[in-house]
Specification:
Elements: E1 5-9, H1 19-28, E2 33-37, H2 46-55, E3 59-64, H3 75-84, E4 89-92, H4 103-116, E5 120-124, H5 135-145, E6 150-155, H6 156-162, H7 166-173, E7 177-182, E8 184-187, E9 193-196, H8 203-211, E10 218-221, H9 227-239
Parallel strand pairs: 1-2, 1-10, 2-3, 3-4, 4-5, 5-6, 6-7, 7-10
Antiparallel strand pairs: 8-9
Helix pairs in contact: 4-5, 5-7
Length: about 250
């Protein structure tokens, strides 16, 4: 049986839609959870927000650190929001090209702080992040950090974009996986990301998801704003049937 749990990334709307309106959309579409982009929380009171999420039965899958700034600079705020909102974890990006920052040590320290609050920490496979763009680089960082609560969000499109096969990446990262990002698209001549309906993703995309469909993983729909595109992604995910590991 397909055990996936649905969520959506609030970053899909950026600053174009306030978080309370995003939560209303999530509730209306029957989605179970949300990834909340940290900057969207800056002007909101947490007590009524927490009450709204509870009333609508929406889980906070994770709080996402902002791209382009070192996550350790936001540690107290990330931990505070995650604990207050009852999040399962915190998503971070390496966001450093300076070896003296010692990213594994920074991650290990942050994971230790998160563990004290019973929180997980997530790395997303992502282009522009040289320490966790490919499966091999992500594995190297995971092993160097050696933190039991450090997990992986596998973004299948991002993996495809690196030139790595989605099946190979999923197999390598399987022991650390807990979550998928769901989107599909292409890059235009200006290198802008152009979304396509998830139903247009290739067979390999579905095969990977089938491989893990019996696990209670979250998946987050990302980069879609219209009901039509979101419902298309939900329909694809609901249609995923488990297959044996022999397929991969």
């Amino acid at each position: 049986m397909n055990q996936y749990r649905s969520a959506i990334c609030s970053l899909s709307w950026g600053s174009r839609k306030p978080l309370p309106s995003i939560i209303d959309t999530i509730s209306r579409l029957g989605i179970q959870g949300i990834e909340i982009w940290l900057p969207q929380l800056a002007t909101l009171a947490l007590t009524p927000l927490t009450a709204t999420l509870k009333e609508k039965n929406i889980s906070v899958v994770c709080i996402s650190a902002p791209w382009g700034s070192c996550f350790w600079e936001h540690s107290p705020v990330l931990l505070h929001y995650a604990k207050t909102l009852g999040a399962q974890g915190i998503k971070v990006f390496g966001d450093t090209f300076n070896p003296t920052d010692n990213l594994p040590a920074r991650l290990r320290e942050f994971c230790s702080q998160a563990k004290e609050a019973d929180l997980e920490v997530y790395l997303e496979t992502h282009g522009g992040q040289p320490r966790h763009n490919t499966a091999d680089n992500t594995l190297a960082l995971l092993h160097a950090t050696n933190a039991p609560n450090l997990k992986v969000i596998l973004d299948l499109y991002n993996t495809h974009e690196t030139g790595e096969t989605m099946e190979s990446a999923a197999e390598k990262l399987a022991p650390f996986l807990c979550h998928f990002h769901i989107k599909w698209g292409y890059r235009n001549e200006r290198n802008d990301y152009i979304p396509l309906p998830v139903s247009q993703a290739p067979t390999a995309f579905r095969n990977v998801l089938s491989r893990f469909a019996e696990k209670p993983f979250w998946y987050s729909i990302e980069h879609y704003e219209s009901d039509e595109d979101i419902l298309d992604a939900l329909a694809v995910m609901k249609s995923i049937l488990p297959i044996t590991s022999a397929v991969i």
